[in-house]
Amino acid sequence: MSTPFFVSAPGKVIIFGEHSAVYGKPAIAAALSLRAYLLVTPSQDPDTINLSFPDINLTHSWNKNDIPWDSIVKHINLVDNLPQTSEELVPEIVDQLGSVLADLNSSLHYTACLCFLYLYTHLCNQELAGMSFCIRSTLPIGAGLGSSASTAVCLASALAILGNRVTSASFLQTDKILKKENNDLDFIDSWSLMGEKCFHGNPSGIDNAVATHGGAVMFQRMNNPAQPSVRTSMRNFPAIKLLLTNTKVPRSTADLVGGVGKLNVEYPKTSNSILEAMEHLSNTAYQIMVRPFFGAEERKKLRELVNINHGLLVALGVSHPSLEKVKIITDTSKLGSTKLTGAGGGGCAITLVDEDVSEADIAQGIAELEKEGYECFETSLGGKGVGSLSFEDVPQELRSTVFSPEKFCAYSDRIEIEKVLSTNALEGWRYW
Ligand SMILES: Nc1ncnc2c1ncn2[C@@H]1O[C@H](COP(=O)(O)OP(=O)(O)OP(=O)(O)O)[C@@H](O)[C@H]1O
Ligand SMILES: C[C@@](O)(CCO)CC(=O)[O-]
Ligand SMILES: [Mg+2]
């Protein structure tokens, strides 16, 4: 695909099983309509790689010839000329990248640049002319909705395209396709997991799997690292009424996953019992969600399971007073059942809204949440996974606006980005 081009990947909501997913228990998640977008344009100087990640106030550039290619490439494991992923980030490569990351003095910027360069050095090569990469997200960042995974999927897919590791996406939204095996999507999924490993040490892979493949899944990481994770698509995912509340309390997935790890070491039997309870819970929820008939009784059971899941996450120490406040408000106004979603510690909660609650009562509940300074989202679940938008697929009269890095970086908010770029605004988005 010729530059410029866009790629985009969705965020996700974990409905059941965050944290236990890291320990090989099944979890259920669905793609969100909120997405990250990455614009790739040729750099003015063909030796320069430019990053512009305005959501995290990062602009950075490298001369591509300053990357220690020879010392890195010798540690890349190639099979049939294809780079292979590994269980852990290759320490020698991380060490070599240290020389070009040394001038980054914030850990936030360091991890984002490490993720970029780790994928760049594996998927592209020194001959590739310098490009500019600008990422904007309509997701809240660091809030439990998979912003890191959608970023990693955007980077992995764009770099795989530039490095000729995948064929271009071909299917339009309107095409009826029966997905079976798809090596390109599996390639992007596995490399975005390496990107997630740069953001936090021990990702289960559920967030990047949903951001890559879209839809709704039951996901299970295998305890034996040699075995691939199991991803079961949930095609009949029931239409559930969901309210998303962002407490805006910042937190880091890496810290929260680390905290559960410590609990596991200190109280292994207790924490294993909690993780096992979560396993039963996800399995029970799955059986309910795939029933051909999904009525009032099933909705009630799911709400009960949401309450139990939240309680178990509290026991793992990953809630936060702000999340408990969301729970108190939604419980008191009898909106439905609430649990934290994603890593917790702040960030977002989901409420499975009781179907009997009137629109007026929902509006009243939302007003109370907003009074606390929280932001409520209405979003749809189960959307498309990673997609790309080529210059040629955009009407000629729109191209200079859509592919302008200056304009893209300057959009003030989610609404503006979606107005220009969303799949509703442009029909040319293609999927693998
Ligand atoms: N638009 C973006 N531009 C650049 N970096 C981003 C962007 N979105 C996310 N990131 C990276 O991801 C990090 C946040 O990831 P983190 O895993 O802590 O939260 P999350 O993915 O939003 O939530 P969860 O993992 O619980 O679903 C940010 O600190 C940043 O490094
Ligand atoms: C907390 C966690 O379970 C979900 C984060 O969205 C971590 C992971 O599965 O990688
Ligand atoms: Mg994350």
From TrEMBL:
Catalytic activity from the UniProt record: (R)-mevalonate + ATP = (R)-5-phosphomevalonate + ADP + H(+)
Signal peptide location: none
NCBIfam families associated with the record: mevalon_kin
Pathway where this protein functions: Isoprenoid biosynthesis; isopentenyl diphosphate biosynthesis via mevalonate pathway; isopentenyl diphosphate from (R)-mevalonate: step 1/3
Start and end residues of each GHMP kinase N-terminal domain: 124-215
Domain GHMP kinase C-terminal positions: 300-364
SUPFAM superfamilies tied to this protein: GHMP Kinase, C-terminal domain, Ribosomal protein S5 domain 2-like
Protein name according to UniProt: Mevalonate kinase
One annotated Gene Ontology cellular component of this protein: cytosol
Keywords, in A-Z order: ATP-binding, Cytoplasm, Kinase, Lipid biosynthesis, Lipid metabolism, Magnesium, Metal-binding, Nucleotide-binding, Steroid biosynthesis, Steroid metabolism, Sterol biosynthesis, Sterol metabolism, Transferase
Organism: Scheffersomyces stipitis (strain ATCC 58785 / CBS 6054 / NBRC 10063 / NRRL Y-11545)
The organism's place on the tree of life at top rank: Eukaryota
A biological process from GO: isopentenyl diphosphate biosynthetic process, mevalonate pathway
Subcellular location, principal: cytoplasm
EC number(s) reported in the record: 2.7.1.36
Gene that specifies this protein: ERG12
Role description: Mevalonate kinase; part of the second module of ergosterol biosynthesis pathway that includes the middle steps of the pathway. The second module is carried out in the vacuole and involves the formation of farnesyl diphosphate, which is also an important intermediate in the biosynthesis of ubiquinone, dolichol, heme and prenylated proteins.
Molecular functions per Gene Ontology: ATP binding; metal ion binding; mevalonate kinase activity
Subcellular location: Cytoplasm
Pfam families: GHMP_kinases_C, GHMP_kinases_N
Family according to the record: Belongs to the GHMP kinase family. Mevalonate kinase subfamily.
